[in-house]
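Researcher: We're teaching a course module on how sequence relates to structure. For the next exercise, students receive a sequence and then see the predicted structure as tokens, so they can try to spot secondary structure elements on their own. Here is the exercise chain.
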Amino acid sequence: MSTEVDKAQTQDESVEITHPESLSVWGLAWPSILSNLLFASVGLVSIKMVGSLGAEAVAAVGTGQRIFWVFQALLMAVMAGTTALVARAIGSGDAEEAAQVTRASLGLCLLISFFTCILLWLGADSMIGLFGLDEVSKNLSVTYTKILVGFTPVFAISMVLGTAQRAAGDAKTPLYIGLLTNIVNIILLLGLVEGRYGMPQMGVVGAALAGGLAFTFNSLLVLALWFGKRLAVSIGKAGSMTRERLGQLITISYPAGLESFIFQFGMLSFFWIVALYGTDAVAAYGIGVNVLMLSFTVGNGFAIAGATLTGQHLGASDPDKAYDSGFKAALMTVLSMGTLGIILAVFSRELATFFIDDIDVVDKAVIFVWMLGIMQPFMAIEFSIGGAVRGAGDTKSPLIITMIGLVLVRVPLAYLFYRLGLSIEWIYATLIADYFLKGVLLAMRYKSRRWMKVLNTNN
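Model: And here is the predicted structure for the students to work with:
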């Protein structure tokens, strides 16, 4: 990606500002897509390693990951505020404010992460007990969750600093850091799960440790670059957590936080309904999600690009380019995710068999992949348009739309089908209604252009 860069001096350091007109959707998206694909590859290796231990281990890890991500909802919410405010600051040429926002976001996320650690250490047994797993799967899942959640603070550091660099227009540095991190993670997975390279064989415990230690490596590396003034957004200075700045972050982030919480709560409720059908259904769900991860990572890459460009163009007072960049991101996402969804569905049996040698689990996973695979164009709209409007500071409309699709449609339908005694295929089918409705509503919101004015109204 070729960029034009000016040097803007802060009081005691220089920061590179990337002008929004020098950026493109693909130029911003491809490093994020590649970074996400590398991260997804770690998930695939993890499932493959754990899959060799049996359906109980796969169900345990899948449940633990779902619990972990529920409690990352607040961190993900702050990322929405960080992206919007850093992109606006960079777009308007204020590198110092971008640095201060990043510093304030980091402090806020560390506080949230320590709270998350305490809560899950105390409540993991009770939470995982709600899913009705067999005793072996439950105990494995509790252990996995408690280990992984202990690394939440270092996860927060890597998340904040990576988000800030992307919002400033630098998607390549997070890619390079992610590449090294994923290599470390895969080596640790092979070593700690299966006992290779002289490491102890630890099974599910090893999978949790591998992920946590990789997060730690990532955070130490990015902190070294940050303090060494080698990142696009500088370290800022003391006093960043002012009432006004935190107020801006919270104003943008709290709807995103509610959305993340509602999304994760809805996913957890859906997961609970799936768990009512037994360990095989849970394992199939986890494998199906990992099979489609290739498509999801592409969508997330375009979401980051759309959020960065809409935020920076609005910061530069150019709403037409903000709208066009979001539309281009949406078009590219629909085409790419739609194509990938069909390809992955066609080869779903071979892919599912790669992860686990259990015909019942494979059969259920194939059905899941086909149902979600054909909905990839509508998921693409949710990724790209949702990212674009959040980048502009509009976090309330995605909140409302998520609530409608997931909480008011998917979960109630799934529970109704369960009560009617219908098979697991009907539960998976509720995904179709959810993503179709959310895609249509987000497209209508984007076309209205009202999302452009939200952050200005808040200021």
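Model: If you want an answer key for the exercise: The longest strand covers residues 5-9. Residues 1-22 have pLDDT under 50 and may be disordered.
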